[in-house]
């Protein structure tokens, strides 16, 4: 590796500006996740699409996300973070805008539902294939420019940005849907394009980090012992969160025997509480207390075991909301711990690759919950998915307290700048 040219290293003010730009861009991506969930079902019904067809749309996009996140991570290791972030934001903008246009065209014109559905699936696939690059490259950009002691705070900021966007999405959709059901798609597409332009003009990356001048031939793999356990934690976290998000409304309908309006209100409050507690953990608790990665992983796993135990008790409205709120705090801790831990245990030239692999785990729940936990709910018992969630959460707690994470003691004692 050549001697560092410190004139090319990002200054503190440029780092802060970069974090703000990335925060806004990831907020937009987070808004897209929940905006689609809020607006698509009623529009899909008008188009004659059923729940299975809508779910398949999201599943295919999630598969694309899982497959291509690691690829974009490695690409960002070779061409730099900024180009990948821009490609992802442009894809997000195009996918969101074209999806809204296709929905509007399908409602207002007599078209083949099959042809329209194929185009809608392709539009979402563009987001999964190309849009997956933005959060991966954004996390790697932060890792490149933080010391080990700063890593958790930087990673938490990226996670909080996505969570904040997820909270804003439904409200953004509700306000604009008064004027048009399709307007939220168009405006969010514009926001995404502005995010891409802001990245182009204001995000500082004069060169690829110098560690890329001598990239080792060995590639970071799924079975790498440094990240294998963390990959399992990431996948498990995605899986148990998807159980809570996808099944809780059905659970309320069938166990608490509430009507559709009451169910929507109660589950909405629970999900809002979950999102807020995730934000608090990432924006307040982690920056203030600066916990170690090991502390975040263990605390997060414990806080996921508790709510799944609560679902096995006689259920009430208060218990349901409390369980989701507790889980939200756990998700904020364990997700940040997973991403920060993975960044810390690999070498500087592997930051993009590891961000891609960890990012790929985020879609695991969307892919597998419908065919596992949902099947258990339908054919076994309403509590069966939560027993499965408890087993997975307990397994994660076992992993983070086991010998597989002893290497954390070494990496956490170091405080070495990357770039």
Automatic annotation (TrEMBL):
Record field: transmembrane: 21-40, 52-72, 84-102, 114-142, 154-179, 185-203, 229-253, 265-286, 293-313, 319-346, 353-377, 383-400
Q: Which GO terms describe its molecular function?
A: transmembrane transporter activity
What InterPro entries does this protein map onto?
MFS, MFS_dom, MFS_trans_sf
User: One Pfam family, short name please?
Assistant: MFS_1
Alphabetized, the UniProt keywords read: Membrane, Transmembrane, Transmembrane helix
In this protein, which residues make up the domain named Major facilitator superfamily (MFS) profile? 18-406
Name recorded for this polypeptide: Putative transcriptional regulator protein
């Amino acid at each position: 590796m050549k001697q560092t040219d410190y004139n090319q290293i990002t200054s503190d003010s440029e780092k802060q500006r970069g974090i703000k730009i990335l925060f806004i861009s990831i907020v937009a991506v987070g808004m897209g996740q929940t905006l689609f969930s809020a607006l698509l079902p009623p529009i899909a019904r008008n188009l004659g699409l059923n729940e299975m067809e809508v779910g398949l749309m999201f599943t295919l996009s999630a598969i694309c996300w899982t497959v291509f996140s690691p690829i974009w991570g490695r690409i960002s290791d070779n061409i730099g973070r900024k180009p990948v972030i821009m490609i992802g934001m442009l894809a997000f903008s195009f996918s969101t805008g074209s999806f809204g246009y296709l929905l509007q065209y399908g409602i207002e014109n007599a078209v083949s539902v099959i042809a329209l559905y194929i185009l809608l699936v392709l539009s979402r696939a563009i987001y999964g294939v190309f849009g997956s690059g933005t959060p991966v490259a954004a996390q790697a950009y932060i890792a490149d420019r933080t010391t080990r002691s700063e890593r958790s705070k930087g990673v938490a900021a990226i996670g909080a940005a996505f969570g904040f966007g997820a909270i804003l999405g439904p409200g953004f959709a509700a306000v604009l849907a008064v004027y048009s059901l399709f307007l939220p798609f168009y405006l969010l597409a514009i926001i995404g394009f502005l995010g891409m332009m802001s990245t182009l003009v204001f995000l500082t990356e004069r060169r690829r980090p110098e560690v890329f001048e001598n990239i080792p031939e060995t590639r970071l793999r799924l079975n790498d012992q440094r990240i294998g356990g963390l990959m399992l934690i990431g996948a498990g976290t995605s899986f148990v969160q998807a159980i809570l998000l996808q099944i809780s409304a059905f659970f309320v309908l069938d166990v608490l025997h509430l009507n559709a309006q009451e169910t929507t209100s109660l589950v909405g409050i629970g999900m809002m509480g979950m999102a807020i507690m995730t934000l608090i953990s990432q924006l307040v608790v982690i920056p203030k207390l600066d916990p170690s990665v090991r502390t975040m992983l263990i605390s997060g796993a414990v806080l996921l075991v508790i709510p799944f135990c609560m679902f096995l008790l006689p259920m009430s409205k208060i218990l349901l909301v409390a369980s989701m709120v507790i889980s939200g705090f756990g998700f904020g801790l364990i997700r940040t711990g997973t991403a920060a831990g993975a960044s810390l245990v690999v070498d500087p030239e592997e930051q993009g690759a590891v961000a891609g692999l960890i990012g790929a785990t985020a879609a695991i729940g969307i892919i597998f919950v419908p065919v596992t936990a949902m099947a258990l709910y339908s054919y076994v018992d309403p509590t069966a998915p939560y027993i499965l969630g408890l087993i997975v959460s307990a397994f994660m707690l076992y992993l983070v307290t086991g010998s597989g994470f002893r290497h954390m003691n070494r990496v956490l004692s170091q405080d070495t700048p990357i770039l």
